[in-house]
Amino acid sequence: MKHILTFGTGLAVLALSAGLALAGPGAAGHGHDKEAAYGKPGDPKKPARVVSISMRETDDGKMVYFPDKVEVRQGEQIKFVLKNNGKVDHEFVLDTVESNAKHKIEMQKNPDMEHDDPNARRLAVSKGGEMVWQFTKPGTFEFACLIPGHYESGMHGTVVVK
């Protein structure tokens, strides 16, 4: 048993020394098993309104989502179809403005952080992805790219739930 723990500890140290950081369920600021203020993971077997979101850079150096505002009805399920049309990796992290602000600070400390959350997708150049989300509570929420420098370059948008 002692050898297994030592081996496991060695792997953890090796992974962290290589600069790999995982933000998975249960990690600080994560763990979306229950319903959050901005809703819960949707059921891909149920109907959903499709909302396509493009991620890209503009000629003047900004980083943007198009569209950058989505309006939904309380209880509505949305299937976000994401496409990175840019020249660098981008993320789509759906959360409250406050939680994204905290997460952005963690991303500055660990820019290679990988997400294993139902509310976040990181896409390489020319790649696509999907996220099904049900918005159960009214309010204004945020989707953002928290890769260092991207948020500051304009890469954030809002979801208004009525």
From TrEMBL:
It holds the Pfam family Copper-bind. Keywords: Copper, Metal-binding, Signal. Residues 1-23 form the signal peptide. This is Copper resistance protein. Residues 57-162 form the Blue (type 1) copper domain. It comes from the Bacteria. The keyword ATP-binding does not apply. Residues 30-46 have a biased composition (Basic and acidic residues). CDD domains: Cupredoxin_like_2. Residues 25-47 are annotated as: Disordered. PROSITE patterns: MULTICOPPER_OXIDASE1.
